[in-house]
Amino acid sequence: MTASTLASRSRHVLALMIAAGSVLACITPDALAQEGRRRRGGDQEAKPVQLSPEQTDQLTKIATDRKLNVDDLLSAAKTYMPSGRHDDYVLFSSGGQSGQVFAIGVPSMRLLRSISVFTPESWQGYGFAGEADRVIDSLKINGKVVAWGDTHHPALSETKGDYDGQFLFIGDKANSRIGVIDLRDWETKQVVKNPLTVSDHGGAFVTPNTEYVIEGGQYATVLGYGYAPIEEYKKSYRGMVTLWKFDRAKGRIDVANSFALELPPYWQDLADAGKNASDGFFFLNSFNAEMATGGIEKGNPPFEAGASKRDMDYLHIVDWRKAEAAFKAGKAKMINGFAVLSMETTAAEGILHLAPEPKSPHGVDVTPNGQFMVVAGKLDPHVTVYSIDRIKAAIASKKYSGTDDYGLPILDFDAVKEAQVELGLGPLHTQFDDKGYAYTSLFLDSAVARWTLGGEYDSLNPEPAWKLVHKTPVQYNIGHLCAAEGDSASPDGKYLISMSKWSVDRFLTTGPLLPQNFQLLDIGSTGTTMPVIYDMPIGVGEPHYCQMIKADKLQSWKVYPEVGWNPHTQSLDPNAPKKGQEGVVRDGSNVIINMTAIRSHFSPEHVEVNEGDHVTWRIVAAETAQDATHGFCIGGYNINLSLEPGEYTEFTFTADKPGTYPFYCTEFCSALHLEMMGYLHIKPKGTK
Ligand code: RUQ
Ligand code: CUA
To answer: CA torsion sign, 467 to 472 to 476 to 481?
Structure first.
């Protein structure tokens, strides 16, 4: 073969490949998805299963070889998803120190994706858009970039106390921030920093129509980043809870219409919003009502002893509609530029009442009908149940057992208590199902307790009210748990996740740092027991809380609505370059690059700038097919973008290091993905 026939042949092959690429590019997403389902058997019909004698033998042999018993086979059948089949639920989990949120399919426990919130993450192009990166800017605290978070509590947006699938909020305990994720494209749209306090814990959770996203504090400080010596703890340190106003139409927290309540320096802990019967209230636990100040280095009792001396701490009962009215009436004062209702105001306006609660509680969880608040005391084997009717009656008749050191009224414990249920050691958090059961995590027992609710739930339960009915051991040390829609006004039952903190021997050893363990329990199909049917290692951070939503409530976009879409503004961007408008526009040393990306090329492919130029680079992913994502990176300049179908993105940098820089697509998008590249030529000063 001569050199010229070889060349013509390879041109021919190339032409074929490009043709194939453009065929792929014009297949509609739906056609592609259908084809995929057909190929993968996702649509297969449910037929009654009948095993032939050979199949029975085969199954028995597999089970014997793999040492599986019948329960294992049943668990496998309950969790296995054939290729192409979709999960029934999506679990949104906090990602702990990873600063992210994880989305996991249930019952298969397959990780679907992570969502970056407080931590830059390169695959999603989150925080890698050069000098004026919007994400990096949003992560600044007092002028410094704080590029990680300790995500604890995700909260799905709600309508009438039920998840509506529109937004997800997540708190950063380490830095007292709230992230807002839009569930149309599963991207973080906003991060707000609380100007009052350094760290938080009791958030995020939402009021029943997502009027407010609530962030409770934890470790008391001098509000507004103030200073006072620890000797002045009682006088100067304060707790807080912040009500962030949510603007659903804009999909953003409206900071100007947000406010906080000043609280005593008890360490406020977890919290929950009332709903139905208790709509208009929210509830916050606390520990360290002792106001212990620690100091083992000076021979004082350590925090752990000092903060658990007394028998009672305080449940904080907040009437948030009254608080909102006081804020709107101008009764707040400003601390560090943020509106705060003082304790005098909250006491005078009847906004805040305290109720005693047993020793160092942790979770407070409101039943689906809103009638009861379940408080779990980590040093008390009981859960204590309060009733909203009793609370309202006690407030109305001023049934107080006194006031605390700050003049806040304390409701009489016996007047507001409905029941106490003995469950076991270390009760932490409670969730609910559709059958009148409550489920409480027992940290020290390493178990999930199922128990019966009373009141309106009596008729649902065959067993007597307020009674432990079953315990399932988990491995090991469960923190939160999460049942399907189990903290909403209409829980589904079916599945429960035990967020087990220690995995010890559950998986292969991964060095001294081991994953956490999400254990899936079947709480729907097995009568009285609730077996563990799956273990999922989480090796990316220590999740705290998660929420599980019915998958069909999510209205996710398959691609961005139009080519040139700006995910930050959620609208078409006027700056987005159109096909045919690609090129370089120069204004002195300011250079704008207008670029499009479509399988399998960037246009332009050569970009020339001068050393010292300030470059604004605009890229549109001109794709409309589902999953036709491109990436874009420039090595050495810390640039990496994720260009999802239709997405418009912009980045800026100063071309301060001359040279020849290949840029390329970082997502394997097509057969000619490796060819999807170009050169950035940064000409040294003085080049002609
Ligand atoms: S908690 S330590 Cu949600 Cu039990 Cu954060
Ligand atoms: Cu586009 Cu690879």
So the answer is: negative
- Who lines ligand 2 at CB under 6 A? 600, 630, 665, 667-669, 673, 676
State the ligand closest to the CA atom of 362: 1
| Strand pairing category for 532-538 and 583-587 | unpaired
- Strands 590-598 and 583-587 come out as antiparallel
Instruction: List pLDDT tens digits, range 107-130.
Output: 999 999 999 999 999 999 999 999
Cα radius of gyration rounded to whole Å, the chain? 28
Domain spanning 565-683: CATH 3.30.460.90: no
Q: How far is CA 311 from CA 287, 358, 401, 415, in A?
A: 11, 6, 15, 18
**Distance in Å from the first CA to the final CA of the chain:** 44
Q: What is the pLDDT of residue 20?
A: 43
Q: Which helix (H) or strand (E) holds 76?
A: helix 70-79
Q: Point out which residues pair with 548 in neighbouring strands.
A: 91, 484
- Rounded CA separation 312/318 (Å): 19
How far is the CA of 536 from the CAs of 50, 257, 520, in angstroms? 30, 41, 8
> Alpha-carbon distance 93 to 475, whole Å?
19
pLDDT digits (tens, 9 = 90+) for 608-631: 999 999 999 999 999 999 999 999
Compute the distance from residue 587 Cα to the ligand 1 centre, in Å. Answer: 53
Show the ligand 1 pocket: residues with CB < 6 angstroms.
152-153, 201, 270, 362, 428-429, 479-480, 544-545
Main-chain dihedrals φ then ψ at residue 315, nearest 5 degrees: -80, 130
State yes or no: cis peptide before 637, omega within 30 of 0.
no
Tell me the domain boundaries of the chain: 81-193+541-556, 565-683
Please tell me the predicted confidence (pLDDT) of residue 598.
97
Query: What is the distance between the alpha carbons of residues 105 and 87, in angstroms, rounded to a whole number?
Result: 5
* Residue 11: partners with Cβ closer than 8 Å, 6 or more residues away: none
pLDDT of 42 reads: 55
The list of the chain residues with pLDDT below 50 reads: 1-4, 6-7, 10, 13-29
What is the model's pLDDT at position 525?
A: 87
Q: Which two tokens stand for residue 270?
A: 């977890």
